[in-house]
């Protein structure tokens, strides 16, 4: 009977989030107590990249898929469609006892595919990131004190290996929050995917005046530096929720434009007061 505890973790995709999660887990007190061995693979790695990722904490870079998947926990950290496509291979090569997770920005599509293949799956989404990509931009503190959404039912949360995963994440100083894949995708469409597309739309809209822009505009459009190859899969696997948020925001912008055009100062003041209060709440959460 396999041990319910996690002693081996394989990470497929060693970019910004995969490498940051590797470092955070590797340096967590609980991983040291459990003497966890970290294996990994990334198809784009050169021999120099392999040497560097081992310096960051990877114990073994595995090119043999059978060895890579012979583990207790597989974390898929590639783009969304790649993660989904890997599930069939994992279903063939990995032991039945393996727990599979991912760090994709959308959850319903991959959870449904894992369920159809009979794979023991619980999705993760660390709410952290940078505009830069690749393990070179990773850091052991990137996920520290950040929310990490775990897409698991109450029943799944009580299983021993999932409990051990949660303990490891907490030991790595992540703030674990549970929700369903459906709840997750609706929520991130609002607080993550909508801001990305607004930043992209804003900087394109103001293209003729970019040379005159100051630091406030640069702050507001920071997300415009995010690459399309990362966002293509996210938008394709959460299109309905994102489109709904964009339409709702368009309605809000139309109301705002009308208030500005007709100089409804009291309504505009209420908007600013509400935004000030919400900004205070947001920043208070960051320091907790």
From TrEMBL:
Keyword Cytoplasm: no
Name under which the protein is recorded: Prephenate dehydrogenase
GO MF entry, a single one: NAD+ binding
Keywords, in A-Z order: Oxidoreductase
Pfam family, one: PDH_N
Annotated coiled-coil segments of the chain: none
Domain of life: Bacteria
InterPro entries tied to this protein: 6-PGluconate_DH-like_C_sf (IPR008927), NAD(P)-bd_dom_sf (IPR036291), PDH_C (IPR046825), PDH_N (IPR046826), Preph/Arog_dehydrog (IPR050812), Prephen_DH (IPR003099)
Residue ranges annotated for the Prephenate/arogenate dehydrogenase domain, each copy included: 7-288
Gene Ontology BP terms: tyrosine biosynthetic process
Organism: Prosthecochloris aestuarii (strain DSM 271 / SK 413)
């Amino acid at each position: 009977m396999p041990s319910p505890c996690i002693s081996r973790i394989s990470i497929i995709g060693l970019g910004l989030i995969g490498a940051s999660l590797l470092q955070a887990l590797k340096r967590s007190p609980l991983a040291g107590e459990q003497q966890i061995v970290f294996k990994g693979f990334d198809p784009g790695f050169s021999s120099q990249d392999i040497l560097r990722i081992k310096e960051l904490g990877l114990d073994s870079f595995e090119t043999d898929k059978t060895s890579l998947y012979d583990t207790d926990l597989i974390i898929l950290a590639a783009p969304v469609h790649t993660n989904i496509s890997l599930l069939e291979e994992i279903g063939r090569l990995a032991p039945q006892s393996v727990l599979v997770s991912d760090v994709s920005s959308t959850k319903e599509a991959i959870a449904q595919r894992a369920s159809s293949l009979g794979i023991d799956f619980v999705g993760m989404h660390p709410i952290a990131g940078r505009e830069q990509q690749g393990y070179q931009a990773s850091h052991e503190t990137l996920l520290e004190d950040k929310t990490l959404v775990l897409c698991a039912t109450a029943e799944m949360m009580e299983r021993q290996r999932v409990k051990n995963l949660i303990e490891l994440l907490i030991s790595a100083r992540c703030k674990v929050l549970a929700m369903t894949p459906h709840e997750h995708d609706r929520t991130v469409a609002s607080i993550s995917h909508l801001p990305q597309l607004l930043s992209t739309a804003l900087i394109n809209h103001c293209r003729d005046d970019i040379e005159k822009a100051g630091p406030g505009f640069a702050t507001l459009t920071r997300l415009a530096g995010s690459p399309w190859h990362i966002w293509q899969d996210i938008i394709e696997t959460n299109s309905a929720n994102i489109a709904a948020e964009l339409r709702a925001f368009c309605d809000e912008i139309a109301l705002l434009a009308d208030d500005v055009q007709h100089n409804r100062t009291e309504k505009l003041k209420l908007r600013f007061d509400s935004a000030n209060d919400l900004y205070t709440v947001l920043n208070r959460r960051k320091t907790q």
